[in-house]
């Protein structure tokens, strides 16, 4: 657990946040503020866009449809071209990226950020983009793609890109593959205890690749190269999205129903129903809260552990937006395409949503705190809970970082040969967030807190612990 003073401040602020309106804390009744993005230099077609957050910028990849007119003036498709752009929040500006290699894909696209490259994957499309060189590369082919290539439920494990299921035109597949950038090779995943699905949900928990197919769920461990069956999840929308939020998998979007699965207890639970008109397809998490956007009335956020969603406005975005989105560590960037009256032609629009803080005072700014013996003892308990049977002593002296940002505590402590990253949940309890080889990345710790720890910047979104 956190130290007594920090814990008291956290519980008090959460209690007040649940009882008082947002305006009482200097926020807005809509739960945050929106800002329109400037015009982007690309406008990809319907359902053919994907994005990643690099720690500094949002990279977007899409497909523009090429059209011509027949003798009656009616447009028809003549082909497609891949396009890409980058949005930098610091300068609030877009730049067009070098033209991606032409591919034959016609289905939805997925992408992951490896810390070095954006890997784009879809039927007929397997590309890698390096922002440092502004160059694209073609990922290798494989005999594993001879039956189909449109894998879904795509995730990044820190070493591999995994995909499972997918299909088109009546086919639903039940196989999976993995790509390792270090070896530039693909491998087949073992057979999963799941039925085939064109649109499975997938999420990486830090240890396992969890895949949901309707009333079935299973988890794959890359370390053991085996699958395990999970308990039957409660019913959820076929348009839902799955995200990892600190210690839980959250399934939300597409309907008012939202679920959470806790690997530690191996149990599902219902979250509060989403507000009416706020059940969109965009779902992200900052680790403590879940944000859902895209309904008729906008979006809503939920502090995990609380009993009510906080609504926020739809923002400057059209209701027909086909969106892709990223969480930057402090804000939600939503961007996408908008159908026009001309068949095959799309406009684009985007916005940045900055959530209102739940409280006021120094606890909601990055704080570099002293790791007391009580804090280290709490971290040791969390480490042992995540590593049953391990024999460890106290956290190594001089190797514990401890701080708070936006009401959540984070720590980096060494109990074994490598450091471990921790964070507290909505109840102030410590949990292992990730193991690390000495890098602390903005995907697991807010960059504002990393900076007050004075860590040295490494590659991409990662910072390096001093030796």
Number of helical segments? 3
CATH topology-level name of the largest domain: Neuraminidase
The value of Rg in angstroms is 22 Å
Number of domains: 2
Mean pLDDT: 85
Helical amount? under 10%
Overall CATH architecture of the largest domain = 6 Propeller
Biggest β-sheet, characterized? 5 strands, antiparallel
Helix/strand-derived category reads: mainly beta
Strand order across the largest sheet = 29-30-31-32-33
pLDDT < 50 stretches = 1-30, 359-364
Can you tell me the CATH class of the largest domain?
Mainly Beta
Strand content: 35-45%
Form type:
globular
The strand count comes to 36
Question: Secondary-structure map with pairings?
Answer:
Elements: H1 4-19, E1 32-36, E2 49-53, E3 58-69, E4 75-88, E5 93-96, E6 109-113, E7 118-122, E8 125-130, E9 135-138, E10 151-156, E11 161-166, E12 176-180, E13 185-188, E14 201-204, E15 209-213, E16 216-221, E17 226-229, E18 241-245, E19 248-252, E20 259-262, E21 267-270, E22 282-285, E23 289-295, E24 298-303, E25 310-312, E26 322-327, E27 332-339, E28 346-355, E29 367-369, H2 373-386, E30 401-405, E31 408-414, E32 419-424, E33 430-435, E34 439-441, H3 447-452, E35 456-457, E36 462-464
Antiparallel strand pairs: 1-28, 2-3, 3-4, 4-5, 6-7, 7-8, 8-9, 10-11, 11-12, 12-13, 14-15, 15-16, 16-17, 18-19, 19-20, 20-21, 22-23, 23-24, 24-25, 26-27, 27-28, 29-30, 30-31, 31-32, 32-33, 34-36, 35-36
